[in-house]
DNA sequence: CCAAAAGTGTTGGGCCTACACCCATGT
DNA sequence: ACATGGGTGTAGGCCCAACACTTTTGG
C-alpha cells in the first residue's frame, strides 16, 4: 500500500462469490447456478462474478445475484462478508481473487437462470457437492459461520419473513444446527433477550394448519445476544 | 466468475493491510509505519503492500510484515483474515482492493523501518488515530474482532509467549476488554475448559519480581471455548 | 373428542459470582 | 514483618434444562 511504482504490482481479477442460504421445507438450501462456460462448464457453482470498476464488493454481490438468478430487490436479504480466497491456482486459467459472501433470505422465490448461468436452482445443502472451483470450501465456511453466528447474534431473524412466529424462529436454529431445542426454554430465552424480537400486538397466525394460532413477532433492534443462545443439543434430530 | 470475456472485467490492484496487535506494559499496542511516499506521505498507516503474482493474501501478509518492519519469522504470530475493503475511492489515485488481517503476537520485538516505510513503531492503541486511507476503520474493526473472539475462542494464548502464567493470560483479557476480572474465577474457568491450556509440569516463574512463583502453562489443542468466557465486567479498570 | 401446536408453571441441580483465606517469595 | 502475587475453599444466588400442564385451534 506504499509504493506506487507501476511495475511493483500485478493486476488481478477480482470477483465475488455468494453462498445464498435459505430454509425450504425444514431443510437448509443453497442457491446454485449451472455454469454455461468453461472452465467447469456444466458444473454447479455458487453465483458470482467480476467487480465492475466503480463497485464495492457488496454492491457487486447484489448485482450478480440479481443478474444470474433473477432475485432482484429481495426484501430482507442479509449480506455478510465471509472472507477472501486468494490462493494462486484456484481458477485454472487466470489469477482471480474472490471475495465471498454469505447471504440469508427468508421466503425463497424460485430463481431463473440469467447472465452467464444456464440455470439457477435451490439445492439442499447436503446435496451440494462437487462444485466448481473451491466453492465446496466456501460453502462449508458459510455454513460454519452462520451456525456460529446464530449463537451470539440476532442473525436468525434474517431467515424469517418480516413477521414470524417463535416456532418459525426455533426451526431456523434447529435446521441450521441440526439439533432439537426445548420449545418452552427457547421461547423464554428469546423473550428474555432485550431487543431480539418485538411482539406484533394482536397479531396471530396458524402455522401447521392445526393447533393454537401463534403470536407474531418482528426482528428487534438488537444485533448481538447477551447472553448467547448456546448450542446445547438434545440427542434427537428433527425434520 | 463465469464469463471470461477479457473486456468483462477490470483489473484491480490487490493489497494486504495488517493490524498487528500486541501487549506492552499492560496496554494494547499496534504496529504502525510512517509512509515514505505519496499519497499520505509522512502519515502513519498500517503496514501492508501489494500482492505478488504467485502469492496468496496470507503469504503476502507475512512477507510485507517482514519487509516493512523487520519482524521476520516471528514465533507465535497469529494471522487472521479480518475482511476485505473494496469501496471505490478508498485510495485516492487508483482502484485498490485490500484484504485486511489482524495479527497478534506475544513478545514484541522492536521493529525497524524498511521497504516503503520510513520508520516502524509500536503505538498505544488509543494514540493511533488519523491514519492514512481507511486504516482507522480497519484498526477499529480489528480490535472489535479480537475482543469478541476472546470470548469464544482460545485466541488469547496468541498474545502470550509459548509458556505463560495464568496471570499473564488474564492480563490479556483485562487489557483488550478494558475490564477487571476476578482472579480465582478466571483461573477456574480456564482450567475447566478442556484443551484451553496445558500445565507444564514442575515449571514456575516469578512474574512481578515478588510473590509466589506462578505455574506455567502452554496453549492447548482446543480452538473454541465451551462454554464461552463472557465479558461480564466488574466496575474497575486496572492498569 | 382427539391431535397438534402454542404457551405457562415449577422444580432441582449446576454453575458462577463474590469474597475469605492460605501459600510462597522478595525486601 | 509485610507487601505482593499465586492459588484454594465456599456459600448464596441465579440461571436453566427438563418435564408437566393448560390453552386454542382443526378434523
UniProtKB/TrEMBL annotation, chains A, B:
Gene3D superfamilies: Nucleoside Triphosphate Pyrophosphohydrolase (3.90.79.10), Winged helix-like DNA-binding domain superfamily/Winged helix DNA-binding domain (1.10.10.10). SUPFAM superfamilies: Nudix (SSF55811), Winged helix' DNA-binding domain (SSF46785). The keyword Hydrolase applies. The keyword Hydrolase applies. Belongs to the Nudix hydrolase family. This is NUDIX domain-containing protein. Residues 11-145 form the Nudix hydrolase domain. InterPro entries: Nudix_hydrolase, NUDIX_hydrolase-like_dom_sf, NUDIX_hydrolase_CS, NUDIX_hydrolase_dom, WH-like_DNA-bd_sf, WH_DNA-bd_sf, WHD_NrtR. Keywords: Hydrolase. It comes from Streptomyces plicatus.
Amino acid at each position: 500500500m506504499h509504493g506506487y511504482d507501476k511495475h511493483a504490482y500485478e493486476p488481478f481479477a477480482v470477483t465475488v462469490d455468494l453462498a445464498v442460504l435459505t430454509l425450504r421445507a425444514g431443510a437448509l438450501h443453497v442457491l446454485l447456478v449451472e455454469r454455461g462456460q468453461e472452465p467447469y462448464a456444466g458444473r454447479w457453482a455458487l453465483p458470482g462474478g467480476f467487480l465492475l470498476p466503480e463497485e464495492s464488493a457488496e454492491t457487486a454481490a447484489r448485482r450478480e445475484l440479481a443478474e444470474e438468478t433473477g432475485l432482484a430487490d429481495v426484501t430482507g436479504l442479509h449480506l455478510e462478508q465471509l472472507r477472501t480466497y486468494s490462493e494462486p491456482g484456484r481458477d485454472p486459467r487466470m489469477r482471480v481473487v474472490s471475495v465471498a459472501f454469505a447471504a440469508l433470505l427468508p421466503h425463497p422465490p424460485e430463481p431463473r437462470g440469467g447472465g452467464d448461468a444456464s440455470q439457477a436452482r435451490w439445492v439442499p445443502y447436503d446435496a451440494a457437492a462437487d462444485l466448481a472451483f473451491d466453492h465446496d470450501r466456501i460453502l462449508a465456511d458459510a455454513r460454519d459461520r452462520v451456525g456460529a453466528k446464530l449463537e451470539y447474534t440476532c442473525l436468525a431473524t434474517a431467515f424469517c419473513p418480516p413477521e414470524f412466529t417463535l416456532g418459525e424462529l426455533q426451526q431456523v436454529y434447529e435446521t441450521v444446527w441440526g439439533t432439537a431445542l426445548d420449545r418452552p426454554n427457547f421461547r423464554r430465552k428469546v423473550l428474555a433477550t432485550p431487543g431480539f424480537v418485538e411482539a406484533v400486538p394482536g397479531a396471530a397466525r396458524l402455522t401447521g394448519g392445526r393447533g393454537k394460532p401463534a403470536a407474531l413477532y418482528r426482528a428487534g433492534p438488537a444485533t448481538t445476544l447477551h447472553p448467547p443462545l448456546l448450542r446445547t443439543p438434545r440427542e434427537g434430530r428433527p425434520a
